[in-house]
Amino acid sequence: MMLSRISLQDVVVRFGDHPPVLDSLSLDLAPEKIVSVIGPSGCGKTTLLRTIAGLVEPQEGRVRTVTSAGGGAGLEVGVVFQEPALLPWRTVWENVRLPLELRGRGGRAAVDDEVARQLSAVHLAQADWGKLPRQLSGGMRMRVSLARALVTNPSMLLLDEPFAALDDMLRAQMNQLVLELWQTRRRTTLLVTHNLAEAVLMSHRIVIMVKGRLVADVDNPLPWPRSLDSRAGTQFAEVYQRISELLWTAAEAEVKR
Amino acid sequence: MRGQWIPTIGGLVVLLLLWQAIVWWSDLPPILLPGPVQVATTMWQERAALGVGVAATCAASALGLLLSLLVGSIVALLLSQSRWLRAAIFPYVLFLQTVPIVAIAPLLTTWFGYRFRTVVLVASIISLFPIVSNVTSGLISIDPLLLDVFRVHRASRWQIMVKLRIPHAIRYLVLGLRVSTGLAIIGAIVGELFVGDAVNRFAGLGTLISAWQRMARTDAVMGAIVASTLLGISLLSIVNLLCDNLLARWSTAQEFESQR
Predict the structure, then answer these.
(1) Residue of A nearest to B255 (CA)
(2) Which of A27, A230, B136, B197 is 20 to 30 Å apart from A210, CA to CA?
């Protein structure tokens, strides 16, 4: 497996004349770990993710990526956005195949195998592979989006509040799925969320962001392997409580600033 | 949906009966208002001329539509390439939309002669605008999130065009094509009115209308109007059928259900 380490050094991102969305932000993401970024809306967490994905060019500072293959260029990232962002005229199968098509990669059989493998990994029944996105439920579309993010075998997975639009039941199912995927593949993952319980359940480390800055960085002692049942213990409640307080303190300090 | 045919047919029958009744009781000369029975009889008598007329007009509008589909798509592809190009060209495309076709048809006959090709050209010009404007918006109004998906995978401009913009625009093309089909028939008939009976081999419905009107054959003129309406409905049905079958997954048919 390709390890990858990402480090952001004094990154500044500004849109027009507004105050910076990322304000000399530094962050190191260790390989094979899930890091959650939480914070109030508009704190810049989505911009942070887009900067790492290469969708936003920072004005100052730099984003350095290191893979085990050496060199920093050409990091493969898989991104799941807030919405499934599927092409409505392509079937489930064709949507998941898209990233491989764009790379003009491999023989047909290899591509087919990979697509099938990812669709099975996100528990989509074979009967649904030929359907168009509009024939699927919201939860199923999100699974397709996740399969598409995984199909290039990325060394890093970036999840931008992917389950925010789902109801609690589906959200829990998707959390379970991502945990399961991480526990089998150990992909370095950045999860942007505004749901504290989700952050505590899913991550090794939780970073709190307010107004473009990192204001707290907490290791999550909740033991692995985890599942939805991990939410029941007292330890979960303790971590939740601690981070919740940190978040409030940070938010209040920002208001006074 | 099947049940809706009954009131639709019923409405037509009532209308025809009413028309026939007015003709019977009002003593209007047939030259002013022939009854539906007389129009039908004349249509039957003139079936040979009407048949050729329908075929000629159908050919002219279909060719005109194909031409505007081709030219319109190419223009739209060009327009989608840069904002600068759109500013330079689009206002003049808009000109096509606002200039009355009846006003430029005589000019076109001067330039291209009293020929079938002039009729095709008129049909094409009038049906060009909906295709250019719809396809252009289809090519440029892409959900930014979908563009991000392509950018994350470092897609080239060409890949974005072929795998994202063009398939996205097909939905818009189908909408434009539906409007353009009706317009192309209007254009063909207007063109034929001006090209006139100089072309005897290809006397389209417009030619027949202008010739019969000069002979004061009101019943035959009305027959030609009925024929052109039927032609319009048939062409539109064919276009709809083709779009629904060939382009269904791009045009996401269900979204259009409410507009039918």
Answers:
(1) A134
(2) A230
